[in-house]
Sequence to fold (158 residues):
Amino acid sequence: MSLPAFVVTFSAFSMASAAQEFFTAAPADDKPFELMEFGLFADAATSLLQCRVGVRRLTGTVTPGSGGSSFTPLSLGRSGDTFGGTCRVNDTTIATQTGGADSLLLPFAFNALNGLVWLPPPEYRPRFIQGEMMAIRAQTGFGSTVTVSGYAILREMG
Fold:
């Protein structure tokens, strides 16, 4: 039997020039998770705009961003499966940390016309343990207001 996978989604997130967070997730006690895939799409983009996106690992004392909302991940398997950690979407201020690190694991360029889908082979999926937070962050804005939707698929390992 495979481990449960969960999807976190958002839609119609308006972003312009500031760094913002599409998704954050923190594992539950003894329930590490891996990032299996994520996708970002600009709704009705008409011009070639680009921003830098990063998958980040935050450690130490982490304070989640604000301006967005909590999100309960949806099971891609059985309806009774529940994600043990916590997730947030659409934060307009980014998460901060003290006493640890804010590490950029994977940098990407997100082109508003083409979108961005990242689906790595299993051996290259980043894993997050208790005391860490995953953030998928727009490190820069588009320079013009763009409405973005997206998803992330997480799999709990414990």
Notes: The longest strand covers residues 5-15. The two ends are 13 Å apart (CA to CA).
